[in-house]
Amino acid sequence: MRRSCLPKCRVARIMGWIQIILGGLVILVSILSLTRFYYAGFFLHNEDICHHFYNVRDVYDGFDAKSLSDRVAKVIDRLETLQAKLESKVQEMEKSKITLLDKKFLEDQIVRPLHSANVALRQIRFSKIEEGRNSTVEEDTLINFFITEEIRKYITPKENRVGKINLYGVDKVYNTIGHACVLHKTELEKYMDYDIGSYCDDDWNLAQKLMLNGCDPLPRRRCLTRASKEYQKPHPINESLWRLPDKRNVRWGNYQCRNFECLSSKNPKRGYSKCTGCFEMDKEKVKWFSNSSLLRVDFLISDVLAIKQGEVRIGLDYGIGTGTFAARMREQNVTIVSTALNLGAPFSETIALRGLVPLYVTLNQRLPFFDNTMDLVHTTGFMDGWIDLLLLDFILYDWDRILRPGGLLWIDRFFCNKKDLDDYMYMFLQLRYKKHKWVISPKSNDEVYVSALLEKPPRAI
Ligand SMILES: *[C@@H]1O[C@H](CO)[C@@H](O)[C@H](O)[C@H]1NC(C)=O
Ligand SMILES: *[C@@H]1O[C@H](CO)[C@@H](O)[C@H](O)[C@H]1NC(C)=O
Ligand SMILES: *[C@@H]1O[C@H](CO)[C@@H](O)[C@H](O)[C@H]1NC(C)=O
Ligand SMILES: *[C@@H]1O[C@H](CO)[C@@H](O)[C@H](O)[C@H]1NC(C)=O
């Protein structure tokens, strides 16, 4: 046994030493080049030395020397820690005479961090951010509101190089954030606190919380998002539509559950309340497909599609769920994009793993579709009697905007208090759509369901 291992071990050992030596060299070179920066008096802002060190045209007036020096100091710190780790590991190996190198240790603790440190070094650019910017007072106010350098960099308009006009026909690009971000400064700064090029925290729930609170759109980040350690390839498309995904394809860290079985409606601690039971495929399979207990309120997909034979090809499902509506429609050769937020369960991941398209949007925003494009907007399980009438008005007009003339608006099981019914009916009918179906049915003593199938009229104006 031992004998047969020997040549292999020797190779691994030699490889390990080569890796260590290479790593050490990289660190040495990095530190040497940084020392040269300091030696040149760069951070003392000595103009002469700067001119000497760079070509004149490389020197910018508004150069952000402070953030550079902070950044560089961090990188040096990190390289030094790495070197110490490397050395102690080498000593340890010599003592215990371990023949086979712990490859995983080298990978995780040394090679990767070293790589990210190097990437970070490369990210130090001679930024033109502060120079010659033609911005309004309001922009500066917003930028200066934030202290975190990465947020400031993000929202600073990026002027095109050498005064060119880009394909949008504009001379600079604005990265936008939701205006309510200013109300959640601390959380946003936490969200944007990362090392450029390294792994982000597993903090999608912080991001979602910011979005739901109106910090939407969120800034982009320059860190690598984490994925499940044991990610498997998804089920093939002929199976994925009606099969729960592999639990290993989801990062469960921020949910109450740790697998799909736990999300069952029978479990009181499943962690979400809307669309109970939508992780049970046998329950999902009958939806919109066979007569339900709420016969009049639940329209069948076959009946709806029959109204516009062959004309419904693309659409939006505005709701919360696991994509079952889109799955059924896909079987009818209709492409549906499903909105999905991860409200207590991995809705987005589930939809995507079923082979359907999740659209991660909140109610806050104008929909990212052009006017008069969609054949169908279906909405269920999302809005009900809690929704502010003014908000609903803006949403309805947005749906109207994206629906094509002759497109269908399918309001599915909207419910509200009986006394509010008139208000909501007025809202739904104000756009003067053609009524294909319109059903009101009691839900409980003082609540009612409204389901409707409405058609957007042509507007030749
Ligand atoms: C700034 O913008 C204004 C109006 O957009 C323009 O007239 C002015 O020339 C610009 N200044 C610079 C320095 O680009
Ligand atoms: C799905 O397709 C694969 C190959 O394309 C096949 O091996 C498998 O049996 C199919 N599964 C089902 C449920 O039809
Ligand atoms: C659903 O019920 C209606 C009315 O009772 C009936 O006409 C229809 O055939 C049923 N459809 C299915 C798929 O069972
Ligand atoms: C969907 O398209 C496929 C391939 O074009 C076709 O075979 C199938 O009959 C269509 N299904 C429906 C429900 O129209």
From TrEMBL:
GO CC entries: endomembrane system; membrane
Alphabetized Gene3D superfamilies for the sequence: Vaccinia Virus protein VP39
PANTHER family from the UniProt entry: F22F7.17 PROTEIN (PTHR44067:SF9), S-ADENOSYL-L-METHIONINE-DEPENDENT METHYLTRANSFERASE SUPERFAMILY PROTEIN-RELATED (PTHR44067)
Cell location: Endomembrane system; Membrane
Positions in coiled-coil regions: 65-99
Gene Ontology biological process: methylation
Main location class: membrane
Topology of the protein relative to the lipid bilayer: Single-pass membrane protein; Single-pass type II membrane protein
Annotated InterPro entries: Prob_Methyltransferase, Put_SAM_MeTrfase, SAM-dependent_MTases_sf
Protein's name according to its UniProt entry: S-adenosyl-L-methionine-dependent methyltransferase
GO molecular function, one term: methyltransferase activity
Originating organism: Flemingia macrophylla
Record family assignment: Belongs to the methyltransferase superfamily.
Origin superkingdom: Eukaryota
Keywords from the UniProt entry: Coiled coil, Glycoprotein, Membrane, Methyltransferase, Signal-anchor, Transferase, Transmembrane, Transmembrane helix
The UniProt record lists the keyword Metal-binding: no
Pfam families: Methyltransf_29
Record-annotated membrane-spanning stretches: 20-39
Keyword Calcium set for record: no
